[in-house]
Design brief:
Two copies of one chain form a homodimer. The first copy, chain A, is of the alpha/beta class. Chain A folds into two domains: about 25-55 and about 300-405, Aspartate Aminotransferase, domain 1; about 65-295, 3-Layer(aba) Sandwich (Aspartate Aminotransferase, domain 2). Chain A has helices spanning about 25-30, 60-70, 80-95, 110-120, 140-145, 165-170, 190-205, 230-235, 245-250, 265-275, 285-295, 300-320, 345-360, 365-370, 385-405; strands spanning about 45, 105-110, 130-135, 150-155, 160, 175-180, 210, 240-245, 255-260, 325, 335, 340, 360, 365, 380. In chain A, the strands form four sheets. The first copy, chain A, has an eight-stranded mixed sheet, with helices on both faces. Chain A has a three-stranded antiparallel sheet with strand order 11-15-14. In chain A, strands 1-13 form a two-stranded parallel ribbon. In chain A, helix 3 runs parallel beside helix 11, helix 4 (about 110-120) runs parallel beside helix 5 (about 140-145) and helix 13 (about 345-360) crosses helix 15 (about 385-405). Chain A is globular, with a radius of gyration of 21 Å. Chains A and B meet through helix 1, helix 2, helix 4, helix 5 and helix 11 of A and helix 1, helix 2, helix 4, helix 5 and helix 11 of B.
């Protein structure tokens, strides 16, 4: 795209604004918490929590400013603003071919809190939830906070979910099969065949399917089908959790949603949330922002994906070229999750050495983050500009030898 | 104040903007939910949920717009932005003479969710909480959601808390004395002597004091002292819950806080919140708005109180003049809570007839809202403009005879 055909006023250089305007590190040092810029020493580049360095869509900023002008921030409706619920339902239906209606959407104050709410609503103490191994720590944390027990089933980059192990994990205490699709940290999209197998098991054993699809719109070639899109019966058993922190950079606004397709199930979760007592819900202004992202943020979104695809290819290929590291490109997410192929070098060790020598912060593939199946990997989030990625890569490459060689003086 | 000395650009008529600009009913019909304008038939005036019809301080709008300009809404810190925690601590210290430090402030997504969190953090199933009767329904709801049991102690308009009954209510299962100070629905401020008696009991029986002070800044003559300001020992036992929906009209932004003065207690509540896992907290933009209200909203706040004082006097005196209704002016809050002195006329009946005949919605002094001690009262929230109050009063006065006379055809 040439300079003479910008896509938007924010895109004078014709690249969606993602390359020409570097990320604003001054803002990030003040605003990006949760392991990132505001919580790191000044000389560290954080590729940690999965939260973009890049600003949100201009349409979101505009919607916030317009809504704020009237100065009225009265109590919103308990389940969410109609405009929010409609925008989410339209998005799921029209862009993801997933059954959804506004009445089946509940606004939540993040996808994370949605996971905790669903676990609290559906589990009795001792009930079991099948989760992937590895997978984002929130699945185990939310299950355990509700008194539930997790059963981990292997999920691999090459093969996806181990369906035989899934079948073996189901027992009379099982209540939920929890999917992370696309998968964090492998960035793999579940195949239609795997989803169909999950659906068949859920039907046979009368289980709920909890489908965390927060990454479903960060895809590079193929779309990510939802298990709920397979057929009506499984749609009614499926709770989809989604959010706006990954795709639109709105983590700080604390906005997510729960989609159900069974009024009794939706009512059960809603009642457990205490939203009707004003003790749970999402800020109206955050809902306005999220609805604007879905309704008016699509040109920005397409440019963001194009940018991320370039960063993904560049980053993964250079990491893959490092001796002792294998880094295939993910199908989805902006997470690189390379495998360490150096005997005796643990994820925690490599993470510590990357921080110490290269001053690059990553997340270790540690059991406390992802479960035991993550060991031997590190995770790098790459939703930043090319300059930041290049700076991080240059440091990692310059210090790689020290990072992979045992330091006799080090205690780590 | 003359037209030639406006207080602010929003105050051309010199009245703080609270009289010259009527409330915007168009906005309220779209935005004010929770029993209010957006949920009522078009011809009904709602004096229901305690949420202002009036717009928030201009300084809040300005802070939101300024923060939004950078377009970065990254994850905030789990316990709250430093600017928010500092603003709240400064406010409690400097304006309310209450011990507070930024480290002891946790941002919550409303005062209501703060109450639920504190109950969950401090109660085991079967533990007891002493609450007032009547009092806002959230005390019982949050206790029961945590598996706790409430013991109600009478609180009257004339006498405040019944200290003998409080002493009698404490037993080995008691964990918390929960104060609502100022009191919703009576608008009474607890006396220093009553607070000292509560503190003495809490010390003697090793109890927590949960002090809901969300109304503490809506006061007309005397300030509202916090129980935590009495002395250091009781400060350490006291959890103060506050918010921004009553004073600054920010209910829709879902922003409140918990103040503790004991690091172990604060840590216990914080851990229970799952904020560190990103599953709980307040939107950063809402924290920015709330901090701006405390830092820069004080001229607006003073004008708001002056306006409310006039509305209070006017409304209460006219209600008090109705035959069969006694309506003293509250010391605090923008809640009128008149007593019905007509034998056989219940709060639910009067509420229903006011809606049917006068098309004015109020909240009945029903057990489900406030506990059994509220029976025989109705609650009217008056944080609106004078024109709306006058319109409601004119309707109530015009239809009062029908409202207090049994209608043989009615089933109510």
């Amino acid at each position: 795209m040439s300079r003479s055909t910008p896509r938007s006023p924010h895109d004078a250089a014709g690249d969606g604004g993602f390359e020409s305007r570097a990320v604003d590190r001054g803002i990030l040092r003040r605003r990006a918490f949760n392991l990132r810029w505001a919580e790191q020493p000044d000389d560290v580049i954080p590729l940690t929590a999965a939260d973009p360095d890049l600003p949100c869509p201009p349409a979101v900023r505009q919607a916030i400013v317009e809504y704020t002008a009237a100065g009225n921030f009265a109590y919103g409706p308990a389940a969410g603003l109609p405009a929010f619920r409609e925008a989410v339902a339209d998005h799921l239906q029209s862009r993801r071919q997933t059954p959804a209606s506004p009445a089946g959407i509940q606004a939540t104050d993040s996808a994370a809190s949605a996971l905790f709410l669903v676990a609290r609503a559906l589990l009795e103490p001792g009930d079991e939830v099948v989760i992937f191994d590895p997978v984002d720590f929130l699945f185990a944390a939310s299950t355990e906070a509700a008194g539930g027990v997790v059963r981990r089933v292997p999920f691999t980059r090459a093969g996806g979910l181990d369906l035989d192990r899934l079948r073996a994990a189901i027992n009379p205490r099982t209540r939920i099969i929890a999917l992370c699709n696309p998968h964090n940290p492998f960035g793999r999209i579940m195949s239609p065949a795997a989803l169909a197998a999950v659906a068949e098991l859920a039907e046979r054993h009368d289980l709920w399917v909890l489908s965390d699809e927060i990454w479903a719109d960060i895809v590079y070639e193929d779309p990510c089908p939802s298990v709920a899109a397979l057929q009506r019966a499984i749609s009614r058993r499926t709770i989809i959790v989604g959010g706006f922190s990954k795709t639109y950079g709105l983590a700080g606004l604390r906005i997510g949603y729960i989609r159900t397709d069974d009024p009794a199930l939706g009512e059960r979760i809603f009642a457990c949330s205490h939203a009707e007592k004003t003790a749970f819900g999402a800020a109206t202004l955050s809902q306005i922002a999220a609805a604007a992202a879905l309704r008016h943020g699509q040109p920005w979104y397409r440019a963001f994906i194009a940018h991320l695809r370039g960063v993904r290819d560049h980053l993964c290929d250079r990491l893959d070229a490092l001796p002792g590291l294998r880094c295939p490109r993910p199908q989805a997410t902006y997470l690189a999750f390379p495998r360490i192929e150096i005997p005796g070098l643990s994820a925690e060790q490599l993470t510590e050495r990357l921080l110490r020598h290269a001053r690059v912060a990553v997340v270790p593939g540690a059991a406390r983050w992802f479960g035991p199946g993550a060991e031997g990997h590190i995770r790098l989030a790459f939703a930043t500009d090319r300059a930041t990625v290049d700076a991080a890569l240059a440091r990692v490459e310059a210090h790689w030898d020290r990072c992979i060689t045992a330091d006799p003086a080090a205690t780590a």
